[in-house]
């Protein structure tokens, strides 16, 4: 895959129902079993993400791992690189379309 060769990765993200730090560690270990690299944990939301291969099949395996360890999932999904991600990485700035869309939005005043 050309995008993977450029450093773009398919990411799976999981937001489990966890409260204690030990539960976060157990959830991260479930995800780590299927990850190609480090698992990133958002301490504030206790959600986590990691690069994967295999797409939907891997996502299904992640869900099954969480189920097997009795960790309930609040939300889960796959994020693939978008054309905007690629354009930004290759050029260093956002597309003209994205910039125009942002300028059409009303500015917040204080």
What helical percentage do the residues reach? 40-55%
Oligomer: single chain
- Strand order within the widest sheet? 2-3-1-4
| Sheet/helix structural class | alpha+beta
Q: What would the principal axes of the Cα set say about the shape?
A: elongated
Radius of gyration: 17 Å
Biggest sheet, open or closed, and with what strands and sense? 4 strands, antiparallel
Counted by DSSP, the helix tally is 5
Total strand count, please?
4
Report the span from N to C terminus.
47 Å
Mean residue pLDDT: 82
Low-confidence stretches: none
Account of the 3D structure:
The radius of gyration is 17 Å and the shape is elongated. The protein is built from 5 helices and 4 strands. With 110 residues, the chain is an alpha+beta fold. The model has no long low-confidence stretch (mean pLDDT 82). The protein has a 4-stranded antiparallel β-sheet with strand order 2-3-1-4, with helices on one face. It has helices spanning 2-5, 21-32, 56-68, 83-91, 96-104; strands spanning 10-16, 40-42, 47-52, 73-79. It is 43% helix and 21% strand.
């Amino acid at each position: 895959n050309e995008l993977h060769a450029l450093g773009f990765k398919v990411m799976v993200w999981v937001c489990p129902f966890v409260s204690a730090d030990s539960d976060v560690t157990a959830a991260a270990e479930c995800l780590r079993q299927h990850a190609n690299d480090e698992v990133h944990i958002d301490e504030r939301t206790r959600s986590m993400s990691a690069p994967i291969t295999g797409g939907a099949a891997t996502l299904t395996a992640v869900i099954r791992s969480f189920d097997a360890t009795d960790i309930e999932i609040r939300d889960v999904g796959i994020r693939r690189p978008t054309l905007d991600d690629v354009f930004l990485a290759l050029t260093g700035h956002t597309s003209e379309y994205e910039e125009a869309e942002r300028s059409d939005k009303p500015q917040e005043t204080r």
